[in-house]
Amino acid sequence: MRTNTSRTSRTVNLLVVLALSTAGTGALVGCGNGKEGDGDGGGGGGHGGRGAEVRAREVADAWDGSKAADAWRKGYFPMGEAVQLPENGLRDGADKHAYTTQSFVLSGELPATADKDGQVKWGSADSLTLPLMGARKAYDTVARGGNAGAHLTVTGAWLGEMTLATSRGPATVPAWLFTLEGYDTPLKRVAVSPSKLPEPPLGPAGQMPTDVLAPLARLVEVAGDGRSVTVMATHGSCDDGPAVRVLETDGSVVLSASVVGTKDGPCTAELKMEEVTVKLDRPVGDRVLLDAFTARPVPYGERNGPSPSWS
């Protein structure tokens, strides 16, 4: 993104940033040292903007044509929800609350399946065979158990398919289809796990000022036409929010997040998250979507869960 910002240099280690994700509004912390950058604007300041650009180029050069990129293009990495709700969604607020709190009751039998494999299919010829997840395990990923309050009742399940966005485009994947009491169409849950993430060819950036470079939280979605991506970026309580710059190459799309408008003085240790949409010059296609800070593919995270769907 091309953004004009005011800047201070606040240095945060990656582990500190991740640790803050579990922090509430805790003790007061400093939010900068008051030094102003001398740069030209956009994502980071002065040395910051140039530093982020250099890092993004290093990440792109390391990944483009690498064994890791080849493995990425051959694997199954979901970039969409592993769970799809019944057609037309959930009927009322009580059912929506039950789903988000994973309040389910099982009143029927779940099929027992012997160990077998399932196929993820892209188009007519490209496919990948992966171990199939059992119905019980799939159920346990969406249900923590019911209570006396609002809950969804599962009356049975069968093995079917669903369409899911992946790093290689839309795919048809095996899925368990759970029948819900009061609904004409099932709730679907992907029945295969993502491939193992390839070893990245470059390590994380390490200690960097957050107005220069910061890690992204997760990928929210890739637009249907592939010409924009939405990510969840982090920032603090003493700044103007996050910004995300992009470097596009033939093999990768590298996203560089930073915090803009950091202010000197006391503020809480609260870590905020904000969605940022980045427009691209051309569709993502099979290019690897990378985080400049971590030098790893940006993980897709479930909207209702704290963890990425792959790591």
What does this structure look like?
This protein is α+β, with helices and mostly antiparallel strands. Helices cover 15% and strands 33% of the residues. The chain contains 5 helices and 18 strands. Strands 3-9-8-7-4 form a 5-stranded mixed β-sheet. The longest helix has 17 residues.
Seen as an oligomer or otherwise, the chain set is single chain
From the helix content, strand content and strand pairing, which structural class follows?
Answer: alpha+beta
Q: pLDDT under 50 segments (min length 5)?
A: 1-48, 303-307
**SSE order, one letter for each helix or strand:** EHEHHEHEEEHEEEEEEEEEEEE
Q: Give the count of helical stretches.
A: 5
- How does the major sheet shape up? 5 strands, mixed
Helix fraction by DSSP (H/I, runs of at least 4)? 10-25%
Strand content: 25-35%
Q: How would the global form be characterised? A: globular
* Count of distinct strands: 18
Widest sheet: strand order?
3-9-8-7-4
Report Rg: 22 Å
**Mean pLDDT, rounded to whole units?**
79
**Distance, first to last CA:** 26 Å
Please describe the structure with a list of short key phrases separated by commas or semicolons.
alpha+beta, 4-stranded mixed beta sheet, 311 residues, 18 strands
